[in-house]
Amino acid sequence: MKFESKTPEGPLAEKWTKHKFNLKLVNPANKRKYEVIVVGTGLAGASAAASLAELGYNVKAFCFQDSPRRAHSIAAQGGINAAKNYQNDGDSVYRLFYDTIKGGDYRSREANVYRLAEVSVNIIDQCVAQGVPFAREYGGLLANRSFGGAQVSRTFYARGQTGQQLLLGAYSALNRQIANGKVKMYTRTEMLDVVVTDGKARGIITRDLVTGKIEAHSAHAVLLCTGGYGNVFYLSTNAKGSNVTAAWRAHKKGALFANPCFTQIHPTCIPVSGDHQSKLTLMSESLRNDGRVWVPKTAHKGLKAKEAASIPESDRDYFLERKYPSFGNLVPRDVASRNGKMMCDEGRGVGATGLAVFLDFADAIKRVGRDVISAKYGNLFDMYKQITGDDPYEMPMMIFPAVHYTMGGLWVDYNLMTSVPGLYALGEANYSDHGANRLGASALMQGLADGYFVIPYTIGDYLAHLGWNDKVGTDHPAFKEAIDGVNAKISKLLSIKGKKTVDELHRELGLTLWEHCGMSRNEEGLKAAKKKIQELRADFWQNVNVLGGSNELNMELEKAGRVADFMELGELMVDDALNRKESCGCHFREESQTPEGEALRIDSDYAFSSAWEYKGENQPEELHKEELHFENVKLTQRSYK
Amino acid sequence: MKITLKVWRQKNRTTKGEFKTYQHEHVSPDMSFLEMMDVLNTELIKKGEEPIHFDHDCREGICGMCSMYINGHPHGPLQTTTCQLHMRTFKDGETITVEPWRAQAFPVIKDLVVDRSAFDRIQQAGGYVSVNTGGVPDANEIPISKNIADEAFDSAACIGCGACVAACKNSSAMLFVSAKVSQFALLPQGHAERKERAEKMVAQMDAEGFGNCSNTKACEAECPKAISVSNIARLNREYFSAMVSSYKVTVGGGE
Ligand SMILES: Cc1cc2nc3c(=O)[nH]c(=O)nc-3n(C[C@H](O)[C@H](O)[C@H](O)COP(=O)(O)OP(=O)(O)OC[C@H]3O[C@@H](n4cnc5c(N)ncnc54)[C@H](O)[C@@H]3O)c2cc1C
Ligand code: SF4
Ligand code: FES
Question: Which residues contact A162 (CB under 8 A, 6 or more apart)?
Fold first, then answer.
């Protein structure tokens, strides 16, 4: 398979400007002759749909929730990065670029990351103009906080609800275009396949989740803005509905899937409370600005948060501050997570399960006062108290790492096009900018960069070359074939009537991945996981029980289809992890570590993005490599000491 | 814990619904209300009964998707969302009644799932600032006092869940609409269109079949995000000042 990154030539800082100039334009009067499908209305999808409609394209947008405003982006808490340098603390586009490349452990494309940093400044302007109520200083100017992996304050925020406010901004822009008649919005509608003819994406197949009706939609281009696949682990911080189905079905239609094993485990989540646990709740990383992470120096089995005060200062191990004096509690997520796990593995974890560490605000409250802390984190503290019953103003929080974000995703070129012409992937659904580890507050930035400031330019080039006449109607046999495939799968799921629920099977898959393809991985474990997942998948197709019919709202059926895809993805994640015999970012291969136990990259062999090609049902996938060339940054072992 | 659940079951929009009673023996106080429902649903599936349908997604109290009317209160007895309600709030042996939101403008789709698309249509009528992508001023060009920004944020915190409507004996959507109108009325970016916005959104709200506000403040008492009724007062000011103009609106939608 041929695939090219299409990275423009020339100096880093000029690539995007030059590229924009070289892209072919669609004449304003002709834009209305084109139709574009946008699947997903999170930050990436809503911003793309609105911006394309403003330009004059006819857009059809889809989401599975009852309203575009409820996309998973709504849950993002901490903030969004931008190289505004409003704080005059030495930030710049180059520094944001550098931090992101380094934070990603040198496994992303320089040109993409630089562009991300470059357009970051426009995002904040756009959001403010839409009426996003960012936090402000008394003088009336925008406030910033700092986030993990950075030594400057470049994170803009709206209390602990930044994702909500940004999404409501993008949603309002989308609403304006729906009212204008330029966007037709389909809610409670799930995309179940992509239609490809003559090697180009021509449309999608959807299911109306209320009536069960299967429908075909054709267009000149299809944008997948369908989010990440963290829920493959069953327990994650993602919304319950987040899934890989759109991306996975595109993958089976020819789109390469990149770096599937790069999944981020977030250090600060509320620990699991029992078997009934349905999801994990993130406590924003911004808390590490003021919270200090510690465990007792010697094991105290079952130590409760309200007993923490009884441990004298001298018996506490502030392990992040001790091991990483220059970044302290603000080391990147992978480092913080792995160290937290290490403490628990040593038996020094706290709480009933021993699978937790303390995040303590006592010093901060003493230093700046309860009111200041409350203004910054009030809603997070309330949420924590609501869920656990403990009050973080009075005692430390207990936290443990949890699956949070997926850096892997559909492979895209510099234009955000997948390896299928006319099929694009934006936001968390693509793999483009975060390498092997994403820095905090950078996903919101990427989603909005892709949707507001990249795709409106790059899609024009494809459409202009394509021409508006080059469109396939839904009467084409390829649509019929795709519809038949979707129907067959639904009938199959409903006919098995086995003994296990979808959730039970999903949970088993999740546990297997968490154990062997989570924070720490080795060859033996991965091989065992591969075998286990194959068995689980066979079990699923013989033993799953999906009640109800296909022509009605049937949430078990929706879940079953998504879990079936997760089973296939899970195996690919393991294959990818097996193949990458180095440690990098989130991917810690026990076989590859420094004497101090830090991740050891092997640039000579692994400075590439893996891009997997689907080869047919039950066939091993084929690995392609996109070699990464670093012309501007020098590769060093990451050090946050 | 053991509890008895009386749950509204309704096959679809057109079929009549009824309460069904379930004994739930496996409840832990640490479960969220939705996790308790998950466990019940697993048991139902094992018995070959169709699970109870309910809306949910983030399970963090922010997406606004969950929507159960529990023991006579939207989102249950606490001022929070159903997903953030924990079983420790209830007593062992208690009987809990669970219904969908009840409002003419929110028809039941199935069991506890309702259609809240009327809220989207109200937002489409005017819940935005008319700016296109690109070509906007620098974010720090217009300073906004911290108090105003904070107040705008308080209004913007609405999650669009619809509990205010479900709580109101008139099924009024005033709290929801006023929150959006206030956010933009407070911020300089929203000033240019404030008159039309108030008029259009209120007209759409009326067209959707939401009732009038009679100041009972039940909405504020039940709102999980503590949206204040002072927003309604602001909406009224915005609306009446708008009515002085001769601006005409046309409304569509509403079903
Ligand atoms: C708890 C939490 C906190 C976070 N905090 C931060 C933060 O502070 N800063 C930061 O930068 N990042 C944060 N992130 C990450 C960030 O929120 C996400 O990466 C980002 O919002 C993803 O946006 P998106 O537009 O790509 O996808 P999403 O917002 O996930 O949207 C996906 C969309 O696709 C639709 N969809 C999916 N599949 C289908 C289908 N088959 N058919 C139809 N529609 C479909 C959904 O309906 C939805 O509209 C956080 C994540 C979590 C979980
Ligand atoms: S005002 Fe409150 S109750 Fe009403 S929709 Fe908004 S958050 Fe829900
Ligand atoms: S599920 Fe999102 S608010 Fe309850």
Answer: A76, A77, A78, A79, A80, A156, A441, A444
Domains annotated for chain B, with CATH where assigned, are 3-110 (3.10.20.30), 116-252 (1.10.1060.10)
The count of other CB atoms within 10 Å of the CB of residue A155 is: 27
The percent of residues in chain B predicted with pLDDT above 70, rounded, is: 95
Q: pLDDT category, B254, cuts 50, 70, 90?
A: very low
Please give the helix or strand (H or E) that residue B218 lies within, else none.
helix B218-222
* Contact residues on chain A for B152, CB-CB shorter than 8 A: 131, 133
CATH at residue A546: 1.20.58.100
- DSSP classification of residue A409: E
DSSP letters for A281-318:
-B--GGGGGT-EEEEESS--TT--GGGGGGS-GGGEE-
| Torsions phi, psi for A331 (to 5 deg) | -65, 160
Q: Is residue A245 part of a domain?
A: no
Residue of B nearest to A503 (CA): B42
Closest atom of ligand 1 relative to the A45 alpha carbon: 25
Q: With beta carbons under 8 A apart, name residues in chain B contacting A136.
A: 143-146, 149-150
- Report which protein residue has its CA nearest ligand 2's atom 2: B223
For residue B64, report the distance from its CA to the centre of ligand 3, in Å: 5
Q: Quote the minimal CA–CA distance from A523 to chain B in Å.
A: 35
Q: Does residue B248 carry a pLDDT above 60? A: no
What letter does residue B189 receive in the DSSP assignment? G
Q: Which residue has the tokens 């933009």?
A: B184
The domain boundary, picked from A379, A404, A429, lies at A404
pLDDT at A639: 77
| Cα B100 versus chain centre, distance | 12
Cα–Cα distance for residue pair B169/B179, rounded to 1 Å: 19
Residue nearest to atom 7 of ligand 2 (CA): B158
Average confidence (pLDDT) over B51-65: 97
d(CA B175, CA B181): 10
Provide the 10 A C-beta neighbour count for residue A272: 15
Query: B63 CB under 6 A from ligand 3?
Result: yes
Q: Residue A390: which residues within 8 A CB-CB, separation 6 or more?
A: A305, A306, A384, A397, A398
pLDDT given at position A334: 85
Mutate to test the interface with B, among A123, A128, A165, A231 (most CBs of B within 10 A): A128
Q: Is residue A336 part of a domain?
A: yes
Say if strands A357-360 and A292-296 run parallel, antiparallel, or are unpaired.
Answer: antiparallel
Look at ligand 3, atom 3, and give the residue with the nearest C-alpha. Answer: B61
* Cα–Cα distance, B211 to B177 (Å, whole number): 13
**Binding site membership of A560 for ligand 1 (Cβ less than 6 Å):** no
pLDDT at A597: 84
In chain A, which residues have pLDDT < 50? none
Boundaries of domain holding A569: 489-608
Of the residues A404, A429, A464, the one at which a domain ends: A404
- The structural domain count of chain A equals 2
Sheet with B18-24: list strands edge to edge: B18-24, B3-9, B95-99, B69-70, B73-74
**What are the DSSP calls for A71-82, one per residue?**
SGGGG--S-EE-
Cα angle A103, A104, A108 (rounded to 5 degrees) comes to 140
CA A537 – CA B148 distance, rounded (Å): 55
Non-local CB neighbours of A634 within 8 Å, separated by 6+ positions: none
Residue reference for tokens 């090219």:
A4
CB-based contact A75 B58, cutoff 8 Å? yes
* Nearest of A390, A329, A396 to residue A361 by alpha carbon: A396
The alpha-carbon gap from A230 to the nearest alpha carbon of chain B, in Å, equals 13
Instruction: Inspect the interface and report whether the beta carbons of B132 and A452 lie closer than 8 Å.
Output: no
Write down the pLDDT at residue B253.
Answer: 45
Q: Which of B222, B111, B217 is nearest to B166 (CA)?
A: B222
Q: Which residues of A are catalytic?
A: 333
